[in-house]
Amino acid sequence: MTDADVPRCAELEQLLFPGDDPWSAEMFRAELAAGHNHYVTARDDDDQLLGYAGLARLGRRSDPENEVHTIAVDPARQRAGTGRVLLQDLLATADAHGGPVFLEVRTDNVAAQALYVAHGFTVVGTRRGYYSPSGADAFTMARPAPGGTT
């Protein structure tokens, strides 16, 4: 993801998450500026931005961990494998960094949960009222480091 992608990402946020405090362009820019973050985009053959994803590489070198911050795909292009490709990119980056991967997902987002389970995540907790202002609950999911534990 580059600064030039930010307006489209903010536009998709408004479309996808209108009831849950969508990220602004400034928030995306702050994420891009943080040296420990890895943000990517997916594009079609006409170079149109279809989706984006972000990962934070956290922890000390001796005890690394990762957190998926976001994965989003244009509603008109969902269920075509774009989210899977974005997640696979994040997981490859996480594996290179080392450590487990954590994320939050709405408890009613069954499609996203299935994607995460297919990639080795399990539910490790529930965060009541995690999303605001809607108050929707979230599952915390974790994927252990390859050959490791969470």
3D architecture notes:
It is a single chain. With 150 residues, this protein is of the alpha+beta class. The chain has a single domain (3-143), classed as Aminopeptidase. It contains 4 helices and 6 strands; from the N terminus they run ααβββαβαββ. The protein has helices spanning 6-16, 25-33, 82-97, 110-118, and strands at residues 37-43, 49-60, 63-73, 101-106, 122-127, 138-143. The chain has a 6-stranded mixed beta sheet with strand order 1-2-3-4-6-5, sandwiched between helices. The model has no long low-confidence stretch (mean pLDDT 94).
Would you kindly provide a brief summary of this structure?
With 150 residues, the chain is α+β, with helices and mostly antiparallel strands. It has helices at residues 6-16, 25-33, 82-97, 110-118, and strands spanning 37-43, 49-60, 63-73, 101-106, 122-127, 138-143. It is 30% helix and 32% strand.
